[in-house]
C-alpha cells in the first residue's frame, strides 16, 4: 500500500500538469487570435479615418476632419467610429501586457477550486477593458470639445502646440515619479487573487474594474502622450504599446518606465520650444 499511494500521487500530478498545459495553450491561442483581430480592426478603422483629411489650424498644426462633421452630419456617427476604433486599439495595445496578469489570475482561482475559471477570467478581462472604454469616451468628448472651441477662437488654436509640448513634458515627469513607480509595482504584482481568490462572478467583475483602474493610473503618462501626439497615428500607438508592455512585463520594468520618461522629457522639451519659437 505504501508504494501505491506515491504512484497515485504522481499520476494525479501528471494529470494536473497536462490539464494546466492544455489550459495554457487554449489561453494563449485565444489571446493571439484576439490580438490579431483587434490589430486588424484598428489598422482598418485608422486607415478609414485618416482618409478624411485634416484642416490646417492657426499655430501650425492640423485638426483631423473626423472631429469636424460635415454639414448635416450628426455627432453620434463620428463618435461611434472613434469609440469602435478605441475599443479595438486598447485591446491590441493592452492585451500583451495584461495577458500574463489574467493567466496568473486563472491559475490562482483554478488552484482554489473554482468551477468555471475560464468564465471568471473572461469577466475580469471584460471589467478591465470596460475601464479603458470609459477613458476612450472621455477622450472623444474632450477632442470634440476642443474642435468646437478651436474653430471660432484663433487664440485657443494657436495655444494648442504649446499645450501639446507641455503635456508630453509633464508625461515624462510623471514617468519619473515615485507615485508612478508604486502604481507600476501594483500592476506588475497583480493579481492578489493568489492570497484571496475571488470565485464569484460579481467579485471577478469588480476585480477586473479595479485592475483596469490601477492600469489606467499607471499608464496615464504614456496614454497622454498617445492622445496629444496622434490618437489615430499607428506609429504612435505602436510605440506606446511597446513601452507599456515593456514596463509591465520586462524584468527591469521600472528602468524601462524611467527610460521612456526621459524620452518623453526630451521630446516634450523640443515640442514646447518649437511651439514657443513658432509663436514668437
From TrEMBL:
Transmembrane regions listed in the UniProt entry: 21-47, 79-99, 120-153, 159-179, 211-232
Keywords: Membrane, Transmembrane, Transmembrane helix
Protein name: DUF2182 domain-containing protein
Amino acid at each position: 500500500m505504501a508504494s501505491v499511494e506515491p504512484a497515485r500521487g504522481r499520476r494525479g500530478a501528471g494529470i494536473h500538469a497536462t490539464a494546466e498545459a492544455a489550459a495554457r495553450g487554449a489561453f494563449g491561442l485565444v489571446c493571439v487570435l484576439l490580438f490579431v483581430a483587434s490589430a486588424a480592426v484598428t489598422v482598418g478603422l485608422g486607415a478609414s479615418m485618416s482618409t478624411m483629411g485634416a484642416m490646417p489650424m492657426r499655430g501650425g498644426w492640423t485638426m483631423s476632419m473626423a472631429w469636424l462633421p460635415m454639414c448635416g452630419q450628426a455627432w453620434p456617427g463620428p463618435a461611434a467610429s472613434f469609440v469602435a476604433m478605441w475599443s479595438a486599439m486598447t485591446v491590441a495595445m493592452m492585451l500583451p501586457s495584461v495577458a500574463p496578469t489574467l493567466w496568473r489570475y486563472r491559475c490562482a482561482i483554478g488552484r482554489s477550486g473554482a468551477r468555471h475559471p475560464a468564465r471568471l477570467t473572461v469577466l475580469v478581462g471584460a471589467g478591465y477593458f470596460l475601464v479603458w472604454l470609459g477613458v476612450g469616451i472621455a477622450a472623444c468628448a474632450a477632442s470634440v470639445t476642443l474642435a468646437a472651441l478651436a474653430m471660432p477662437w484663433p487664440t485657443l488654436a494657436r495655444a494648442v502646440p504649446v499645450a501639446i509640448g507641455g503635456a508630453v513634458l509633464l508625461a515624462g515627469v510623471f514617468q519619473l515619479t515615485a507615485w508612478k513607480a508604486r502604481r507600476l509595482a501594483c500592476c506588475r504584482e497583480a493579481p492578489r487573487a493568489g492570497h484571496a481568490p475571488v470565485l464569484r462572478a460579481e467579485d471577478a467583475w469588480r476585480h477586473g474594474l479595479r485592475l483596469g483602474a490601477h492600469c489606467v493610473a499607471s499608464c496615464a503618462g504614456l496614454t497622454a502622450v498617445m492622445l496629444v501626439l496622434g490618437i489615430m497615428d499607428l506609429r504612435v500607438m505602436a510605440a506606446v504599446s511597446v513601452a507599456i508592455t515593456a514596463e509591465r512585463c520586462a524584468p527591469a520594468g521600472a528602468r524601462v518606465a524611467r527610460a521612456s520618461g526621459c524620452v518623453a522629457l526630451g521630446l516634450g522639451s523640443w515640442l514646447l520650444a518649437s511651439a514657443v519659437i513658432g509663436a514668437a
